[in-house]
Amino acid sequence: MNELAPHSMPKDIGWIEVIAGCMFSGKTEELIRRLRRAQIAKQKIRVFKPKIDTRYSEGSIVSHSEQSLPSTIVEDAREIIHLAKDAQVVGIDEAQFFSNDLIQVCNTLASKGKRVIVAGLDQDYRGIPFEPMPQLLAIAEYITKALAICVNCGNPADKTQRKIVSKERVVVGAADIYEARCRRCHYIPEES
User: Fold this and answer.
1) Cβ distance 136 to 103 under 8 Å?
2) Active-site residue, 168 included
3) Nearest CA among 2, 53, 64 for reference residue 28
4) Which helix (H) or strand (E) holds 142?
5) Which residues is 21 bridged to in the sheet?
């Protein structure tokens, strides 16, 4: 994944970066990498994740490769505006678990001069765009589409395959419930 070129970095304004893709594509890992680089540059960061995501840690964002960074849990995206007031760089993980309020939150933070980095699933297990990600992709200045490796055939994967039967759109889980699949190997499980 390419880091933003120094000549393309905005000056004296904020912006939105979106890291999108399927599960196991390295979205959180890339978010952590960018936030750590901001820390090295002595920028004040604040990291947030939704209350629903307690898979690996309650006090950190954690990648599937076990990289982590301390974070604040929020129930409502609107809390982020106040909690991030002193930050120069704002990281938000698992964006798909927030309501569409996240769109305005990101716009507000960027308009206040902050670099906002958002990571999340761009599609649900059926391959349908996962709100609020489509809207965030539309307003972002920078977009990274992360791909995984299909567990069936080894091709680049951009789909999240659910391995269990559930009518719920959101079922929080990791490798026990999901795996990465390519377009050819992905199927929509029957709902009972």
Assistant:
1) yes
2) no
3) 64
4) strand 142-146
5) 121, 146
Of the residues 29, 30, 94, 179, only one is catalytic, namely 94
**Token output for 192:** 């009972």
Per the model's pLDDT, the better-predicted residue between 170 and 174 turns out to be: 170
Residues 6+ apart with CB under 8 A from 62: 28, 55, 56, 68
Distance CA 159, CA 187 (A): 9
Query: Average of pLDDT values for 117-125?
Result: 97
Task: Please give the single-letter amino acid code of residue 182.
Answer: C
Find all residues with CB under 8 Å of 19, minimum gap 6, and list them.
27, 30, 31, 117, 118, 119, 120, 144, 146
**Chain centroid, CA 152 distance in Å:** 24
pLDDT of res. 15:
97
Instruction: Give the whole-angstrom CA distance, residue 68 versus residue 86.
Output: 22
Structure tokens at 46: 């604040």
Other Cβ atoms within 10 Å of 189 Cβ, number: 13
Residue 192 predicted with pLDDT over 70? no
Residue 152 has a CB neighbour count (10 Å cut-off) of 15
- All domains of the chain, ordered by start, with CATH? 13-147 (3.40.50.300)
Tokens of 97: 């678990």
Prediction pTM value: 0.90
